[in-house]
Amino acid sequence: MNEATAIRLCLKQRDPRGFEFLVKQYRREAYYHAMGLLGDGAAAEDLCQESFAKAYAAMPRLKSLQAFYPWFYTILKNGCLNHIRARRQEQDYEERADARSDPTLAAEQRDDASAIHAALMKLKPEFREILIMKHLHDSSYEDISKVLQIPRGTVMSRLHHARIAFRDQYMTTIKETHHEHT
């Protein structure tokens, strides 16, 4: 079976074998993209499962689909971004509570993260996403263009701006960490 056949089985015949093929084909890639956005393996697994379930439920409503992964990636990415927003709100609440009860503990928790991870996580999600795709997954500009459904020139431009933002954030993180330890 190939992707076109699997998509046809899903759309025309509502055959779950087609979707099983697509899941097997893309589950690893989906996990690594989710992991890159979230930085948490368990959350990445959960979000992948949720996203595949949403995709399976949505496929019967589609009239056509040329390529599965770019369409699916939109579902996965939105789930990850929603998770990040919810987690950020939780962390803000916990940090305020920790700071009120034990300021030293709050400072120690911030120091635990590495400078690179901290800087990456402070970037806008679209910058973090493109840096991870290019530098951690070693995706080509064409692959990134297809997955994100943006022109190649936009990929190059966004990557350029993401690298600058990362460099600036990394330097800020290093200075903050150094300042906290002196």
Molecular structure report:
The protein is mostly helical and 182 residues long. The chain has 2 domains: 1-109, Rna Polymerase Sigma Factor, Chain: A (Orthogonal Bundle), CATH 1.10.1740.10; 113-182, Orthogonal Bundle (Arc Repressor Mutant, subunit A), CATH 1.10.10. It contains 9 helices and no strands. The protein is globular. The N and C termini lie far apart (61 Å). The mean pLDDT is 84.
Largest sheet: none
Euclidean distance between termini CA atoms? 61 Å
CATH fold descriptor of the largest domain: Rna Polymerase Sigma Factor, Chain: A
Mean pLDDT: 84
SSE pattern, N- to C-terminal = HHHHHHHHH
Helical fraction equals: over 70%
CATH class division of the largest domain: Mainly Alpha
In the CATH hierarchy, the architecture of the largest domain is Orthogonal Bundle
Let me know the CATH homologous superfamily of the largest domain.
RNA polymerase sigma factor, region 2, helix turn helix motif
Structural class call reads mainly alpha
What does this entry show, briefly?
The protein is an all-alpha fold. It contains nine helices and no strands.
Secondary structure topology:
Elements: H1 3-12, H2 16-38, H3 41-58, H4 68-101, H5 103-112, H6 115-122, H7 125-136, H8 141-148, H9 152-181
Helix pairs in contact: 1-2, 2-3, 2-4, 3-4, 4-5, 6-9, 7-9, 8-9
Features:
182 residues; mainly alpha; Rna Polymerase Sigma Factor, Chain: A; Arc Repressor Mutant, subunit A; 2 domains
